[in-house]
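Hello,

Our lab assistant flagged a job as stuck in the queue for most of the afternoon. It eventually completed. Since we weren't sure the result was trustworthy after the delay, we are filing this so someone can double-check. Below is the sequence as submitted and the structure that was eventually returned. Let us know if re-running is recommended.
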Amino acid sequence: MDYKSLIVNGRSVRNFKETAVETEKLSEIETFIADCKKLVSEIKIETKFFAGDDAYKRLYGIAGYQGVMIEAPNYLILLSENHPQSIENAGYVGERAILKARDLGVDSCWVSYSDGNMVKSVLGIESDKEVVALIALGYAASNKKIEGATKTGENYSKSEVSVTQDVSERIGIEEMVFIDKWGNSATPEILEERALLDAFSYARMAPSALNKQPWRFIVDGGRVILAINNENYEGSYINRIDAGIVMLYFGVILDVTMFDSKWGFDKLDKDYGIPSDYTVVGYCNI
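-- returned structure --
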């Protein structure tokens, strides 16, 4: 897949045609998820697909924006075993599945939910794994292109992700990336010298709830540290999904331009001067 093109041409769709996604495409997405690179390879996940009308009725009131469900012809559910990084992994894998769907011409939208156990119950899912992602799939009811970055009311089901990536609504590289310690802004020239400008440029395009772009990076020699504006990070599903998505966008560009990326989550023993309202999520050795 041409990940760069797929990222640049990203969009989130809320209004779908009634046309169901072809079985062959759903099967291809399912196989892709099973075989694709994960954020944490040892986390076991399951994939479930549901047809639209019945699932829409069952999920109404427990998923979507303030209980208003997004109506789509198909839904993808990701289930995961319990793990400290299960939600970040869901963001990473779920967004990779969205890129694959986009490559097949299928539109999508992240959908929030209030209670994963309730989602399992109403859809009749029998599994010891937890619901970690709900994604609507289908074909856009309109070809209208939405300019600008993500604008959402507390969850992805209301997001409008840019088709033509208006960089004016994106934080600059100097604000997003620091060298050696917090506040020491990186320049595009420095990142170009370190062969990291591409990866950070595409990471800028990652969708995030309310377009908050909550991520910041510190480049420390051969290590890139990711910190997220915490807002009670450990208990925030949305922030943790955002973290997984931006780790994918950064990592997948390294994968295709330099080398196989891998994120680590061990506690760092170095003080980078990171403010208290940010949480270190992980690091990538480069």
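-- support follow-up --
The delay was a queue issue, not a problem with the job. The result is valid. The chain is about 30% helix and 20% strand. The domain at 173-285 is CATH 3.40.109.30 (NADH Oxidase).
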